Fold these 2 entries.
Entry 1:
Amino acid sequence: MHILCLTVTFAAGLSSAATLIPRTVFDSTSSLTQYFSYNYPWGTDHNGGARMSPSHAVISSAGTLTLTAQKVSGQGPATHGGQQIPINYLSGAVFAKQHFTVPTGGGFIFSGSFQATTTKGTWPAFWLTAVNGWPPEIDMAEWKGSGKISFNTFNTSSVVQTKDVAYGNPGSFHDIKCQVRDRGNGKDAQVKYWMNGVEVTTHYGQDYVGKPLYLIINLQMEGSSGSPGPSSNTTYSIRNLEVTTI
Ligand SMILES: *[C@@H]1O[C@H](CO)[C@@H](O)[C@H](O)[C@H]1NC(C)=O
Ligand SMILES: *[C@@H]1O[C@H](CO)[C@@H](O)[C@H](O)[C@H]1NC(C)=O
């Protein structure tokens, strides 16, 4: 009894990190839907030319989520920011059922391996955005059809730290990691980004601590990535996704 108590205390003291989304999340549709819901938290449309549909977000092989954008016609427009946006694609989006709130003194690590396109008119993303109001928003990775990958942290719509990096071999998987934690003042977040194991940049998000965030993975089209987008199917695949506390 005494030994058991010691063991439990010792183990708890050693491992403070908790796994919030395990790497097995994309092993099956039932695991996907245990942790994620389909479309955006607010519905099927956002700021581009794709309307999200659950049939376009599938486990393509054990361990891999694939979002497919398919050119379509006959869809009514999306409305965003008072503007009407023509819908030219059906595509896929998923968002985590749990929210991520950076606590005072703590934070999270979001990581995964991504096969994303940089073709004009394709706009894959892996991002965090505010549950209430806006910002916070952290684009842990987005590809805006330019041949680059972008990492962004918003204080306001016009005050934003942006880092664009050349993105080679879009047909291959690239490892992305983002650490979001209390900067140390119980108020702002420090955001560190890595690609393929190499640290890329550090940003700071104003007043991010204590604000719940959605985690979204989506393949938007056109919009900020240019138009017209491709007429053949575009895919965006993710594997080894994991979210842990730090
Ligand atoms: C956003 O706010 C944080 C905290 O005040 C600051 O460190 C950072 O520089 C700001 N970002 C920009 C782009 O000014
Ligand atoms: C394009 O994607 C859709 C949705 O996944 C699929 O039903 C269709 O068969 C695909 N078309 C081709 C030519 O692969």
Entry 2:
Amino acid sequence: MIAENLVRLLERIDKKCKQVGRNPEEIRLIAVSKYFGTDAILEANKAGVKDFGENRAQELMLKYDKIGDTVVWHFIGTLQKNKVKYAVKAAEYIHSVDSIELLEEINKRASSLNKVQKILLEVKTSYEESKSGLTNEEEIFGIAEQAKHYSNVNLVGLMTIAPLTDDENLIRKSFRELRLLKDKMNKSGINITELSMGMTSDFEIAIEEGSTMLRIGSAIFGERNYSKDWRQV
Ligand SMILES: *Cc1c(COP(=O)(O)O)cnc(C)c1O
């Protein structure tokens, strides 16, 4: 089931890349495995997926303890300061940095593990009340500048979640805003390459708008069962 879903998904990614003249090799597919067990992760890994995304620190730790570094872990959820140590231990990338305090804590924890933590800044491009992420451009530039002074963090890009809507224009606007912000940052001497954007419902638009990291869950693993206890991994 997972292997078949993956074949279908990769076909769609390839097709969209061809349409817009992009090389699919420059896009990293992150399988978002939240609510799915380690059996599903290993099955996807066997089918060729190397990158996995989790949005809760404890769930990530449980899976990391079982699977370890044989796959590349991405932390993509809201991160509390007291959970930073777990995310830093397991994740090669933390996509959801949204404050200077979090940046500082990540640097501290990464330093004690002798690690350079790759991070992305989460930007709120959707103007929805409930979504997390940075909105103030001055603050975004400020955090990016501060990151340059920390030797145990490496800022590689920006992440966003598009609004939950059927209106393709609004979704595109959100992804485009992130791309333009990245360009602006690069012009001002902050060198970043990654755009983490695009999920199951909107990844084709994200590819058109320059995504380099797709975070896709249900198209690979199927619908999530939110009533299932994630500790039974
Ligand atoms: C769950 C989640 C995804 C994946 O969502 P799907 O719709 O299942 O592809 C992507 N990004 C974040 C931040 C998530 O929490």
